[in-house]
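Listing S7. Sequence submitted for prediction.
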Amino acid sequence: MFKKFVTLGGVGLAGLALIGAGATATFTQSTTSNHPVQAGTMNVVLSGAGTLSTDQRTLTFAPLGPTGSSFVYAQLVNVKNVGDIPANFVYETLTAAGGSDLIAGLHVCISSDNILYNGPLSSAPVGQQLAGPLAANGGTDKYTVTIYAGDQVTPCGTGVAMGALQPGVTSPAPSLPNAAQGQSVTIGVRMDFEG
């Protein structure tokens, strides 16, 4: 019996001796790199000789009129990016609401360093693509909206639809038609930006 106990004990000790045989300790470590991203803010505001909305994104000028059948009305719009990312002019859209005969008789010239659009209000482009960045943190630009009828001197001159300005040149636009008498219209110029 004692022999069996010694034998079992020896086998047990041998088994304990084998535990951990071939096992080695390994140090481990991990690294992590974090990459935070913060989106910037585009904030384009307007200024000019009109009434500004609270967010400064809508500028409304005083009404012109009553006018005769031939007139010119020009307003300067200042544009400033007070956001912290550049903003690109992407699209220009002209809208008009009001008397259809007056809309049909009006011409509009949108100009900056060059002519962005010049022609009949009723044919104005919707979503005309533009290009040109406004720098972040204070980049500025400007454009002039000139509404006219009849032979008038405008920055756009001879009726060229786009291209170089023609200051001091008379436009060949016709005067307003008789049916436009007494009508009114509101013209909107929307500039869309992306950043």
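Caption to Listing S7: primary sequence and predicted structure tokens for the chain studied. The two ends are 91 Å apart (CA to CA). The CA atoms of residues 19 and 75 lie 92 Å apart.
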